[in-house]
Structures are given as structure tokens and as C-alpha cells.
């Protein structure tokens, strides 16, 4: 019983980790980056590669993963993405789908079609039991800690710092922001780098539970979108709550009502979109 | 009279010429396989098997040289694509034999083409039982799902496993496996204490594993498509100490097949499965096969799909030798019926009644052999027919 | 006799901010009524409430004596209430004739026809052509809207509104951004409109207002300060008070418009209208 | 007066020489590629599918990531009907159109809410739910194994569907042409123009008295019905339905085909389908594993640098030729 709740929270946090990057690019930059999964996959491969080929310890890979993803993110942002900031959502979708195709083939070319093995350090694997029949998976606990920490940090960054304020201004009205002498481009690059880094981190942390192969970007795209749709893009708290709710409902649903299968989570998504297009926790758009 | 003679003579001549004619030109085998997309690995392994056979046994049978034409029907689940490619093979490339078929939908979709075009069709993997009933020109050299499911059920019942919890992926094969396991296991006096069908693309097995843990069955019967799901499940299985708490894990052998067993890692140790082929099968034929395979494709390990391709090609070769190179559907199927041979997987034969394969099913356990994870056979059900057709 | 258009105690709140603060307004049939006031006085918001572009927080809107507060924008248009927009909302990639004919079809009830081509709807095309002739647009009838000068585009803005054959026409700064010479010309055409059309005009250029209007309402911070004949308004001390220091207003209007809330959100460029504006 | 003023408007609706030429292609193809008819008829079907998307996306501006929902619904409708013994092709198409249209009407209520992004996700969601449903209802759909045992009766009671795909091809092309002709009338009609008005400036239309939602629901339903017909055709010409007809990749691929060809011009849909399917066929033949890579590159390129697709390129080419021709005349 308690275990189900715990697993639910863990699953929720995992959802949060793999989708928060998208929430950043979509919500804060209003860019529909369906290639989010590609960045996550990149992070996954970097992590596994360092781990298995160079024997870098798992925890040590994470910062490297974030750096690499961010770097690639900046590169693509400067060369391609910026061209589409003004464009319609449709164009952004098409563009990022194209990017997804390319990434899939590239991954297939370098790593082959098979699943990548990931061996966690013993300190992160296994499970310990607490009184009251609560079994705590160490890795899940680790995810929860990381996830919540990350959420807090991001929330603070967006709401509590000058950068956050600048960012929000730049997004709400680029023209005005430029007028006020803000370096909008710099802000966008930084944000995109952040989004990519988060995607990479999510991917790396996800490998253990989601697996990793070239189809990754397509397979989990739905889950990213669901979280953003329910959470309301662009607010960190929203995506966290949404992820937790989805996670707990999903786990509980599977535990007590397995027949429902994937319907449940899709249902939640549709209902939200129809009745609260701005998301459960989204601020009502000014338009 | 004379006129009669001459007529006969000319007929004879004609016969000779015509037969001579077709003996000369090569025999074309059109293969429909998923070479890209999610099931690319299937196509790869089957092609390996076929080419390996031609490389080791020569490429001319019944006086006719074999020519392969391979078409990619990715994603492999789109019957319309497979059917179109089969049509092209027949109409445009003028193939004599249709072969391959990674997944059930493509076999189902192509069967009518074989019937209409009167071409023999050799299935090298697709495993749904009913496939062979879809065309009289169809023969299967791989396996059927029930064939590999029933034995593990009866083995479990025989070996002190009373209560089983079944967990299968929620798609055609998964449902079939579940049904067959229940049938055999309950018939043998076993009890199903819980059953779950999980979405095919499922991010987290935690809740299911927890459910199993709380139900405390003697064993879990598992059927998942090879890939992310399997790995996640196996890892969770050990992480949550189900293995430690003595809950056995039983499944069909495609779960820990040689293609992905390394990705599962040590979590797979102790997994008990029933299957028709293991790289570790002890026989001179298999030793030779494995050696040849390792030489030809050092980056991959031979698995049941490669053997499906290998035996499929063997079947075609033997038939051609028997018919002297005649691949017309009726003759081909007649020759194929009741054919027996020793495959790398062990003794196999084609059931004259169903045109489906009859083979020995082995019970295996995942162990480390020379640092390599292998399915080690320790029990067997000889000459086992597909129970799905009864 | 019943007013052509009437507002009763209209209130509109955006969160805490009160954009329209209990506006009551009655426009007689055939009137030439002007609505003036400093920027941010809530003139455009009022128009949006009257036309149903926005739903009021409180109060009601009456059209020819019927309550239309609840009826949708397009229904009000069918009842004869048309408007133009402060910032062009045109159909960039359509020819002038095409877009006006489209509007005419809507009025003639043939807009849902899906069999005959629009060009074959003679009635509609004729009506559109006449309208264009009246506005001296016939020579550019087949030009693409986006290729025309801004002054012409303002005329099309009006042509589209007239195509619905309104009984009440709300003009939201029809001359905004139009060079003085052209704006005169534009007002000539407006003056020629038949009396069967009641006109409510929002305009910053005071000479235009005083040449055109017979009644004027002055709005300040969402409420009507006063209403009267041009003479009365000109004499009103409070109005001067309001406009004190706003002498240079007409000049700055354009720049302000860019930053004013009425300016379209970023990204709206996609619909072509903003592109036309700049 | 009308005559000369309306001239250009009418001209737009009139059939051009190039169009007649275009429609000779499928006829010629029948004789030139007699052994590729299977592929050709699937191209025709894809073209029809793309056409339906063009109506809502290219003309009315409704974005969709789940158009396969209607294609698949049509496919299953035709398939189940035929399996129930009613194998008449035309009857099957009618059923496919009806069921898919009905679904379109219902879902249009959801889709019309919200902006592009919401629409993208709602359409995606609807598609996913249908796929999941088809996967679960194995009794009806055969799940992943696909729906077999479909017996299609001869077309008009005389032309049986042969393995060479002759009947299938002629049938598909005929249906494609019929629907195209209808669509062509629609886009030049007042209704069609008002749809373009909605795409170009949705905010202005109500101010002209247009009931925007009603129009969009109408066209969305129509497009769904056409997609259903395309699906029905696929079922009848392959006599098989695989669950893949409902998959997300199918929707994404369709979007890609349309953008490649060029949105907002019916021919863009057709040309996109022809080019894409042929390229896929050839590339997949060359190196199956990596054709997706090139596909992705092309898509990125098109979005960034050639947003008006092949049709746009053709138009520019035509324009250049025209001008060059003119100058030569002047010189001479």
C-alpha cells in the first residue's frame, strides 16, 4: 500500500525529470521541440558510453552528460532553431520531427538497434525495507531526491532570480524586451542550453527504467507531451504536480486496475486539454 | 499412326526442351523481411541464417542456382506493405518462392498472394499458430507460440509449481501465450493466482512487480516482446528481491534470446524458459553452425531467428533436390510434407497434415558459460507438435 | 424612438483592472457619433464589448431595441452591427475583390455554397464591385491585399465592414497611420455614406472629429465623462482638462499604438495583419 | 460588368492545360509500369489521404497530428463490413466515409477548442486512444495480427481484384479523381474561400458575420470522411487491415508528405504523395536502415528554406520560364 504510493511518487518524478526540459523550451520559449526526446537519448548514450567504455562512475557521468547535451543544444540553437522562433507551431513540429528522424538513424548507425546495457553502482541498486511494509527502492529514492531538488532549483531560478525575470520579459514580449535593452538572443540561447541539459539528464537517469535504443525519441514522446499538456507548459511547479499526479494515478491504476492499460493516462491528457487547454496549473494565457 | 508417332515425338521433344529450359535458369526466392524500424533485428538475423546456409552448403540445388531478392516490409506490422511487396516479387521480379516473414501480420497478409499466384511460401519466423491454415502452399520452418508455451506450463506443473501469476504484453502474441499457458497449466492441475496484461510500450513495471510480490505465487509466467520492457522487468524483478524471495520466473525462450540477453545482464540468471533453439545446444550440427556464424558475423550471436532462416533455406534446398529443381507449388508442398532433418536446433520434421514444423522443445536455464550468458538445456519434450491447432 | 445601438451600464474587468466602468451610451438611428478620449480611456475595449468580441462582466448591449448581450459576434453582424479595426485585420494573400466578395456572400447567405465557384456568384461579385467602385478601389480590385499601400488597406478595412450592409458601423480610428492627405479623402468617402447607416467613430484627430460628428462622447479611464454636440464639447472645461498636455497627441498616437494593449501579441505576424501594419 | 470584373475570379476555378496534362500521367503510368500497379495504387491512396489533410490544414489551417485516426477507422469499417459478407467495394467506401465522417464530427467538437498547440496534442491524443482501442479489441480488429479473411466482391459486379493490381489501380485512381474533382470545386466555392479567410485571419471572420466554428466543423467532418474513403480503399485493394493504419508514424508521415508537396494547393498533396512514396520505395531499396536519415534532412530543409514545398518550386520555375519566354518574344 505505502509502497504503491512510494512507487507512484518515484514514477511521477521520473516523468518530471524526462519532461521538464520540454516544459522549459516550450513554456518559457514557446517552442514546440518534439526533438526533446532526441536530446534525452543523447544524454542516455553519453552516460552509457562513459560508463561502459571509459568506466566513469555513474554519478560522475551526470554532469558531463548535462554539459554535452547543453553544448549540442547551443550548437543546434545557433545554427537551426533560432530561425524558427517566429514560426508557427506547425513548422516547429515538422522541423523537430525531421530532427528526430535524423537522430534515430544516427543513433542506429553508431550504436546499433539493440538495447544498451546499464549496470548501476551497488550503492544505488537494491531495496531496503521500512516498518509498515514499506519497501524503498534505492534508485527510486535517489530519483525522488534529485527530482525534487531540481524542481526547487528551477522554480527559484525562474521566479527568484534576475535571469528568470529577464527571461519572462523576453518571452512575453520580445519587442518590448529589446526596447528595454535586454539581450534577448543571449537569454534564449541560455534557456535552450538549460532545456537541452535537463533533457540529457532526464535521459541518463531514465535509462535504468526506460531502457535505451534508437527508437527512444519516438517511444516516449507521448509521455513528455502528456506531462506538459497536463502541467501547463512553462511553469515548473505545474509540471511537477502534474507528473506526481500522473505517476501516482498510473501506478495505482496498474496495481488495482491493470485492464485499463494506457487508456487512463491518455484519458487524463485529453480531458485536461479539452477542459483546461492551458493545463491544470497553467496560468490563463492573456490572449 | 505415323502422325501419332510424330505428335508424341514432338511432345517429348517439347517436354525435354521445356524441362531443360527451366533446369538452366536460376530459381528466384523473394524474401519479405523487416530490415529497418523497430524489428530490424528480426530481418537481420533471418537474412544471416539464409546466407550462412548458402555460404556453407553451396547455392545450387536440383540443378538450379538460387537467387535471393530481399524486400524491406518495415515496420513489419503493416500487412498492406508486406502484401504489396509480395505482389511485386511475384508480378515484377517473377520469383518462384516467397519466404521470410518476421511478424504474423505480414505472413497473414501475404498468404492469399501465395494461394492466388500458386507460389510456395516458406515462413521463417512469424509464430502465430493459425498462419499455416491461411494457404495450402504455406509451410513453416520456425516455430509456433503455443508449441513453445505448453512445455513450460507442463514442466512447471510437474516440478512443484502450484500457483502461477501470468504477466503478458497486451497484444496478439501475448494474449495467445497467456491463453495457451493457462490451458495447459490448469489442465495439469496448476492454479493461476493472478494475471496482468501490460501495455506494449510500458515505462514502469514497478506496480506489476509489487502486485506479484504481494500475491506471493510460486512462479511468474512472463511474455513480453524482446526489448526495453523485458530488460526493465528483469531488473525490477531482482531489485525488488522477488528472485531472492524464491518466486521463480518462467517464460518462453524468445525472452532471453541471444540477441538481448547481454543487455539484460546478470538479472537474467536463473530464468527458466522453454524453447526450440539455444546457442548452447550440444550437438555437432550446432557446434558447426555456431562456429560458422561467429566467423561470418562476429558482431552478432546466432539466435532462433537465424536458425529459422537457416532451416527455411535447408527446406527449400532439400525440396529442390527432391523435385529436380521444380518449384511449382503443388510439387513443392508435396515434397516438403513429412520431410525430416537434423537442424542445429535438433531433430525436426514437417507435419504432413498441417505443413507446420514438429520439433523438440527444450527446458533451459540462464547460466554463465565461459563468462557468457547462455540458455543451458536441462530437460526436453521430443517431437512436439503445435498444440494450438487441436 | 428606439436607439440604433445602446449600452446599459457596461462593465469589463481584466483581473483587478477595470477597463470599462459602467458605460451607458445611446446612439440614435442615422447618427454620426464620435467617441473620443485619451489613450487607455477604454474606447477600443468598449467597441469590443459592443460587437461581442469581448463578453462584458456586467451590463447589457441593445441593438435596434433588442438585447444582444448574449449573442455571438457573427450573430450581431447579421443583425446589422459592423466594425472596422484600429489595426488592419485583412486577408493578406487574397485579392481585394475576392475578400470583399467573400464578405458579401456571407451577407447574401451564399457563403456556405460549396458547388458553384465564387466567381460564378454574379450577384455577390456585382455587389462587391459596386462597393469597390464607391470606395475608388475598382482599379486595384485584382491586386493582392498585401501589395497595397497602407492608405488603400484602410479603405479595404472599411469596404469589408460595409460589405455586410450594416445599419450600425463602428469605426475604430479609421485614419490611424494614414497620411493627412489620404485621411481627408478617406473621410470624404465616409461622409458620403447614406443616413441609413448609423456611424460611431473613434478618432484622435480632432479636426476630423469635429468635421464629421454631430454628437460626441468623451471617455476617461473607462467611463463616459460627458456627451454633447461638438460645440458643447469644445466649450467643456473638463474636456480641455483631460486633453491638457495632450496637444501633441495626434502625433504620438502612432507610436503609442505600438505599445498599447491593443497591439497584437508577438507571433501574430503569421496572420499577415501585423506585417501589413508595419 | 460582372463578366470582366469577375473574370480573374472565374479564371481561378477554370481547369488549366497543365492540369489536364497532369491527369494524363496516371493513365500513361498504367501502360508504362504494368508491373508496378500495386505500388501505384498505394500512391493514389496516399494521395487521397494527403488531399483530405490538405483540406483542413492547407485551406482551413487546422493542424493535426492524428489524421490517421480517420484513415484507420475507414479501413476497419470497410474491412469489418466485407468480413460480415457485404463485400461490395462501393458500399464499403460509403460505410468507411460514413463512420469516419461521424467520428470526425464528434472529435471536431474537441479539436476546435484552443490554439494550434492544443489542437496538435488533442489530435495526437485521439489517435493514440483509437490505436490503443484497436489493439485491445482483438475480437473485432484482430489486434496486432491484423484483420484477415476479407472477401471483396468484384467491382460493379464484373471486375474482380486481380493479383497484378489492375482493377485495384484503376479503381483507386478513379476514386482519387472523383474526390479531387469534388475538392477542387469546394476550394473555389464561397465555402472554400471562407475557409481560407479563416486561415488567413480567424479573428476578422466573425466580424464579417461568419460562424467560424460551424465552418470548421463542416470541413473537419468532410476531411475525416475522405480520409475514411482512403482507408477503405487500402483495405479493399490489399484485402487486409493491419493496426498500423492507426499508428502515429502514419499521421506524422502524412503531414510530412503534404508539407513536402506544398500545403494549400490540392496538387501539392498529390505531388507530395507521388514523390515521397517513390523516393521511399527507391531509398528503402538502396539502404533500408538509413533512409529515415535523408527523410529527416529533407524535412528540415523544406521547413527552413522551401516552406511552400514542391508546388512552390514548380510555380517559381513556371514563372521564370514564362518571363524568359516573354523576353525572347520581345527580342524577336
Question: How would you write the strand order of the largest sheet of chain A?
Answer: 1-2
Mean pLDDT reading of chain B: 86
Largest sheet of chain B: 9 strands, mixed
Low-pLDDT segments of chain B = 9-23
Q: Give the name of the CATH architecture of the largest domain in chain B.
A: 3-Layer(aba) Sandwich
Strand coverage percent of chain B: 15-25%
Secondary structure tally, helices of chain A: 12
Distance linking N and C termini of chain A: 45 Å
**Helix content range of chain B:** 40-55%
What portion of residues of chain A is helical? over 70%
Count of individual domains of chain B: 2
What's the architecture of chain A in CATH terms? Orthogonal Bundle
Instruction: Give the C-level CATH assignment of chain A.
Output: Mainly Alpha
Order of helices and strands of chain B: HEHEEHEHEEHEHEHEHEHEHHHEEEE
Shape of chain B: globular
How much of the polypeptide of chain A forms β-strand, as a percent range?
under 5%
Descriptive key words:
heterotetramer; A: 287 residues; mainly alpha; ABC transporter involved in vitamin B12 uptake, BtuC; two-stranded antiparallel ribbon; 12 helices; 72% helix; globular; B: 390 residues; alpha/beta; Rossmann fold; 2 domains; 9-stranded mixed beta sheet; 6-stranded mixed beta sheet; 15 strands; 24% strand
Describe this protein's structure.
- The complex is a heterotetramer of chains A (287), B (390), C (278) and D (332).
- Chain A has one domain (2-275): ABC transporter involved in vitamin B12 uptake, BtuC.
- The mean pLDDT of chain A is 80.
- In chain A, 56% of the residues are buried.
- Chain A is built from 12 helices and 2 strands, in the order ααααββαααααααα.
- With 287 residues, chain A is mostly helical.
- Chain B is 42% helix and 24% strand.
- Chain B contains 12 helices and 15 strands.
- Chain B has helices at residues 2-24, 40-57, 79-91, 104-117, 145-158, 172-187, 206-215, 228-239, 261-264, 284-296, 304-323, 329-336, and strands spanning 27-33, 60-61, 64-72, 97-100, 121-123, 138-140, 163-169, 191-198, 219-223, 248-252, 272-275, 340-343, 346-350, 357-369, 372-384.
- In chain B, the strands form 2 sheets. In chain B, strands 7, 8, 9, 10, 11, 12, 13, 14 and 15 form a 9-stranded mixed β-sheet that branches.
- The longest helix of chain B is centred in the first third of the chain and has 23 residues, at 2-24.
- Residues 9-23 of chain B have low confidence and may be disordered.
- By secondary structure, chain C is α/β, with parallel strands linked by helices.
- Chain C has a domain at 5-86 and 166-277: Rossmann fold.
- Chain C is 37% helix and 21% strand.
- Chain C is built from 11 helices and 10 strands.
- Chain C has a 6-stranded mixed β-sheet, sandwiched between helices. In chain C, strands 2-1-4-5 form a 4-stranded antiparallel β-sheet, covered by helices on one side.
- Chain D is mostly helical.
- Chain D is globular and about 60 Å long.
- Chains in contact: A-B, A-C, A-D, B-D, C-D.
- Chains C and D meet through α2, α3, α4 and α5 of C and α1, α8, α9 and α10 of D.
